Amino acid sequence: MRVAMIGSGYVGLVSGACFADFGHDVVCVDKDQGKIDRLHQGIMPIYEPGLEGLVAGNVKAGRLSFTTSLPEGIKGAEAIFIAVGTPSRRGDGHADLSYVHAAAKEIADNLTGYTVIVTKSTVPVGTGDEVERIIREANPQADFAVVSNPEFLREGAAIGDFKRPDRIVVGTEDARARNVMSELYRPLYLNQSPLLFTARRTAELIKYAANAFLAVKITFINEIADLCEAVGADVQDVARGIGADNRIGSKFLNAGPGYGGSCFPKDTLALVKTAQDAASPVRIVETVIAVNDMRKRAMARKVIALAGGDVRGKQVAVLGLTFKPNTDDMRDSPAIAVVQALQDAGATIRAFDPEGTEQAKLVLTGVDYAANPYDALTGADVAVLVTEWDAFRALDLDRVRSLMKTPAIADLRNVYNPEEMARRGIAYVGIGR
């Protein structure tokens, strides 16, 4: 099948490359000339394990191409995916749909023959209705269907998630569109990946509901971690104990500094705004957002306490800046709030992240960036491990102790064993234990 992917960011590029790998003919469209030029040179706009090789292989095979021209990109396409950004709108927290609407209008002006328009971007309930209205108004003679097909990709594991999904949600009640989407995902259906067809509005809500529920799990275990510290329990044992219950499950029960990234913060906020507009507030999710926001800066207080209650004039080593490992994404990373709170308290920050340095420079000021973890730790009065990159899981602790001015580590991901740290002569504090 011929597929057009409007938007060559995280979702669009990964999805387009994976569809091409299935054998479809895919054109990725993006208005950013620089991004398209770099893609033609094999330079990825994001860090995602395996993506560079996947893109290169399918470009070489002639199944994947890139353009800045939407009319050229969608010509002859049987399915056109809208995979543009929907960031939180400044001022009110609603999802900014201006890019989606602009794409719909330009698509409408260039439609020929029956075409399935697929919203892959994360959008509030009712967006598909508006996309359909825009296209129908701009091109009354167009033969098309608008489908919702939300993505469930985890940064750092996106290719595996696309090729081995828990489910594929398709929101449509149009029989022809259903046939097109079934053929598009046939390679996955043959691998017994469940293809769930729903009404369009239902599919749109599934995405927000899923992310909100996962955010609830993260925030729940973080509050339990605080309780564990207060009563002398171990949150990791608590998580194992409740996670073994198959009604709960163990995923997303790792205590830490709070959730961040491109999805949970904006999606939970958008769900809250949608619910408020519908006069059906989601109080649990509202509380989750408030608790998560407060938690991030509270982590800095843990570091300050480990440093003797004062970090003014002291050097703090920060290990990990991205919101999670295996990505360069800094969006709403807990590290941002931690670093800024430490700077507000008078600390000097020396940080290292395996992939996120360039993105971090765009959102953090006054930070000295190190070449490796040991470089960051040299001369530090205290260290804080924020992101659990593999590069931080097996540090030479004797070397760490010798390099630091004061061997003290706040481990916000519970990577290390407290007893082992004590044996190595390193002052240590974790989360919920």
Short précis:
By secondary structure, this protein is an alpha/beta fold.
Describe what you observe in this structure.
The chain has 433 residues and is α/β, with parallel strands linked by helices. The chain has three domains: 2-198, Rossmann fold (3-Layer(aba) Sandwich), CATH 3.40.50; 208-289, N-(1-d-carboxylethyl)-l-norvaline Dehydrogenase, domain 2, CATH 1.10.1040.10; 296-429, NAD(P)-binding Rossmann-like Domain (Rossmann fold, 3-Layer(aba) Sandwich), CATH 3.40.50. Helix content is 45%, strand content 14%. It is built from 18 helices and 14 strands. The chain has helices at 10-21, 33-40, 51-60, 70-74, 98-108, 127-138, 158-163, 175-184, 186-190, 200-231, 235-243, 264-277, 283-306, 334-344, 357-363, 373-377, 397-403, 418-423, and strands at 2-6, 25-29, 64-67, 79-82, 115-119, 144-148, 168-171, 195-198, 315-319, 348-352, 367-369, 382-385, 408-411, 427-429. The strands form three sheets. It has a six-stranded parallel sheet, sandwiched between helices. It has a six-stranded parallel sheet with strand order 11-10-9-12-13-14. α13 (283-306) packs across α14. The chain starts with a strand and ends with a strand. 45% of the residues are buried.
